Amino acid sequence: MDNEQVAYDYDDFIQKTGDYDFEDDEPLATDLIDHEGYDEQQLLQQQQLFQRQLQLQQQQAAAQLPDAVRNFILYFHHCLKENNVYDLHGCYENSFNRLTEKFYKNTPWPDPHGVVAPLVNNDQPFVTLYTELYYRHLYAKLQPNLEDRFASYDNYCIWFNYIFDSSSPAEMELPTNWAWDIIDEFIYQFNSFSLYRSRTVRKSHNEEEIQQLREHPQTWSTYTVLNVLYSFIQKSRMNEQLEAIKEGRDPDEVAGEDGSRSLYKTFGYFSIIGLLRVHTLLGDFTLALKTMEGIDLSKKSKYARVAGAQFTTYYYVGFCYMMMRRYSDAIKAFSHILLYISRTKGFHNRSAQYDSVTKRSEQMYALLAICVALCPTRLDDSIHTTLREKNGEQLARMQRGGEESLPVFEELFSFSCPKFMSHGPPDYDNPANNVDPLQHHLKVFMMDVKKTMLVPTLRSYLKLYSTMNIEKLATFLEMDPEELRSALVVFKQKSRQVRWTEGSLLDGEVVNVSDLDISLEGDLINISEAKIGRKFGDWFLRNTAKYYAVQDTILNKNPDKQEEKEHKEKRRERREKNAEKKGSK
Amino acid sequence: MPSSALTPSSRPQEIEEILTTLSRYNPETTTVLQEYVATQCATGSYDLMANLALLKLYQFNPELMRDETVLNVLAKSLTVFPQPDFTLALHLLPPSLLHQYSTASAPSTIPLPPKADTDDQLSNSVHRLTYLNSLLELEAFPAFWRILSSDVDEEYADLVADVTGFEDAIRKGVTKGVILSMRSFKIETALSWWNFTNTEAVDQWVEKEMPGWVIEGDCIVRKDEGDAAAAATGTMQPAPGKIKFEQFSRVIRRVYENELLHH
Fold first, then answer.
1. Which of B164, B183, B204 represents a domain boundary (last residue)?
2. Which end of chain B, N or C, is surrounded by fewer C-beta atoms within 10 Å?
3. Please, what is the average pLDDT of chain A?
4. Quick check: A537 and B130 CB within 8 A?
5. Where are any strands of DSSP class E within A477-544?
6. What is the pTM of this model?
7. B213: three-class secondary structure by DSSP
8. By the CB < 8 Å criterion, does B208 face chain A?
């Protein structure tokens, strides 16, 4: 992989994409959002009309606003104005979720424009951020309709416009995890819109909605979303900064005025992970990993503290590796993050994202099972135990191979793959042409799987011998000796995989990943097996620790220990919070 | 994937520009990338990243898609089997093209050619190339050559006709598998795997493409110690069970605590 800096040529991009007719040379995202701003204005006019009609009702609604909610909104606004990142973090992470539980479990939060805007003197940045939260909550707890989807998109445009448009970098700071959530949700809604659109075209006969979708091909278009992400990376000069970090230089040297501000830095960094995700959703696994060139996963970055970003990164990196048949790299990625999740379980239990973390980790166990079936690998003990609990039976069926294993692969793949989407709008005139992208990728993936169906059977026979004649094995397997010869070469080739050693994620060397190796000498198969010695040391140490625990229980030292542990956890949490406070100031 | 495969030295500066900038999304670069595919077909060079970028542009701009180029990209990626390039390209094709694809399982491990012909010409061609790819990845070479030279369905041969040196490129792929997994190889098998009609061709091929191998009697035999040789010496070295000193921290702390307790 070349180490040349990736230069994104924006002007070029704008002028040549052809979809937009821009007249000036302003950066892309700004133009784009200006363009969208036109629609937004119309929308606002309509809204104003609507507002006048409903003014009375809204005043009532405002009056009915629970005090706790009203106070929260005012305080929230105050924190944003003061740029108080520490308290903003509290509002965002704790109060909002608490109030959601109490008042808005099944109903939307107060209307941003009708109810909240008047409370805060129409302070545009706050209203936009609040609107983002409003729609995110709506997407999570309720069913957004087409109007909501359009409105949420418009709100993102306003927000990105606000960030990009100001001639000086926006004087605003957001908690790091909030910045991640915005990027994450932006892509989620983009993905969700695309699925909603194809579903509408394929199944529903709602002509009105289809008409609306046809009229707005730019809303949530792939180009738009890529533009936003690339623009963030460009604006923050994130790739240059990462390059500098790699070379041990100060990233601020190359960051420029914008790139040295923490808001741009965070958005720039997370946009790279966003791109990884978008490219994967579109089925471009090589480009997805190439996008991550600058990011060194083996080093801890300060963004690693945002757990959601970590999970996303490893899930998509692992998935891309799997699709490139680099199973051992995929296994490494999944094991790493699953271990991390199991170790930090205590924290996630309390967080609002608990459900999504659980779902994500179940998906990753399923993917891990697929990879282990395709490339037998010794896993970390605790991962192995959990995998056996969760997908043990399926794993055994996949490892047996043969026709019967195929439905299991299909089932696990469909359950755990990203929600694939197509690049552009569906074919409105020929709905039959709109094949579900999931089916497409599944089919191509299954072609790979089918070619390895014989490998487990071969493996089970070869394990028993040190030399064997092709003819004899062919008789056992009831197959043609010449076909068996081919199958053995396939077997050998499957044991060789590209594996990452250093450099960017796409790099790697071809290595042997199997414990069973063969070589053919005419019609004779020579077989050798690497017996991995049991790690006795590990075993003794683990059981010594268990024995200590038993001793403690007998001596009734456990309750104290428990308390001490909790104290420690709390202390660590506090430390982290403080660190974040300092870091973002 | 070795780095050289991702950035081949044959890649012109102009293409490098496109791939490393946002021009890769610019529909106007389609023509440049198309010509580049034609160059690859003519000269025997190969550039996966550029070809995938072209397929992506086609996805964004279906009206620009040229069937011939799509098929050439696929045919080119056959020449680097068993790398996953063909599969990676399939993922970037419009889903409708493969929708109908299915091969009947034959009694043997080698699948039969795709059955249902659709009305769509491009789709049929993609099916055929996909089938060729399956045969290659199953190392089912006799079947592969048979299909390719079939008089019944000449389209198979047409599909790879644009790729100069296609047959030799496939033979090189076959040879890689042989070198990886064998210490000796019957000339009889070699003839059918490489699709040679006489042993002179085999002689020449071994001399040119398999340094370290010689012909002895009716076999081609490895003389140097390569990858396959290591495997033949019985069991490999077991991985030693290393323990890091830090792992003892708990035990040591425990002993220390106990000392404190007792005194």
1. B164
2. C
3. 79
4. no
5. 496-499, 509-512, 516-521, 524-529
6. 0.82
7. strand
8. no
Q: How confident is the model at residue A168 (pLDDT cuts 50, 70, 90)?
A: low
Does the beta-carbon distance from B3 to A1 stay under 8 Å?
yes
Helix (H, G, I), strand (E, B) or coil at A469: strand
Contacts of B23 in chain A (CB under 8 A): 9, 12-13, 16
Instruction: Show Cβ contacts of residue A230 under 8 Å, excluding neighbours closer than 6 positions.
Output: A8, A10, A13, A28, A271, A275, B22
At A274, is the secondary structure helix, strand, or coil?
A: helix
Least confident of A13-22, A185-194, A455-464: A13-22
Residues 83-122 of B with CB under 8 A from A: 84, 87-88, 90-92, 95-96, 98-99, 101, 105, 108-110
Q: What residue numbers bound the domain in which B216 lies?
A: 165-230
In this structure, is residue B49 part of a structural domain?
A: yes
Q: A527 phi and psi, to 5 degrees? A: -125, 135
Q: Distance from CA of residue A135 to its chain's centroid?
A: 20
Q: What is the pLDDT of residues A479-489, one digit of tens each?
A: 888 888 888 88
- What is the pLDDT, as a whole number, of residue A21? 34
Alpha carbons A229 and A232: distance in angstroms, whole number: 5
> Cβ of A563: how many Cβ atoms within 10 Å?
10
Q: Domain-by-domain residue ranges, chain A?
A: 10-305, 306-451, 454-529, 542-584
B200 within a domain of the structure (yes/no): yes
The beta-carbon neighbor of A17 closest among B25, B98, B229 is B25
Tracing tokens 């992400």 back to the chain, one arrives at: A229
Q: Both B133 and B187 in a single domain?
A: no
pLDDT for res B249? 82
Whether residue B237 is contained in a domain is answered as no
Cα A275 to Cα A292, A293, B6, B66, distances in angstroms? 9, 12, 20, 27
Interface of A with B in 328-347 (CB under 8 A): none
Which residues of chain B lie closer than 8 angstroms to A466, CB-CB? 234
How many domains is chain B partitioned into structurally? 2
A421 close contact with B: CB closer than 8 A: no
B49 versus A429: the higher-pLDDT residue is B49
pLDDT score of B33: 93
Per-residue pLDDT, averaged over B56-60, amounts to 92
For residues B111 and B223, membership in a common domain is answered with no
Q: Do B23 and A13 touch (CB under 8 A)?
A: yes
Torsion angle, alpha carbons of A400, A406, A409, A412, to 10: -110
Number of A:B CB contacts under 8 A? 227
Q: Which of B14, B15, B22, B78 to mutate to test the interface with A (most CBs of A within 10 A)?
A: B22
Is B255 among the domain residues? no
- A440·B99 Cβ contact <8 A: yes
Predicted local confidence at residue A20, as pLDDT: 34
pLDDT band at A294 (very low <50, low <70, confident <90, very high): confident
CA distance A176 to A445: 36
Is there a single domain that holds both residue B145 and residue B185? Answer: no
**A485 chain-B contacts, CB cut-off 8 A:** 189
Residue of A nearest to B188 (CA): A522
User: In terms of domains, do B49 and B148 share one?
Assistant: yes
Lowest-pLDDT choice from A334-348, A422-436, A491-505, B93-107: B93-107
CB B93 within 8 A of CB B55: yes
Q: Are residues B19 and B148 in the same domain?
A: yes
DSSP B219-243: EEEE-S--HHHHHTSSSPPPPP---
Final residue in a domain of this structure, among B145, B164, B183: B164
First and final C-alpha spacing in chain B: 62
Question: Please, which residues 19-78 of chain B have a Cβ atom closer than 8 Å to chain A?
Answer: 20-23, 25-29, 48-49, 52-53, 56, 59-60, 62
Query: Quick one: pLDDT at residue A350?
Result: 56
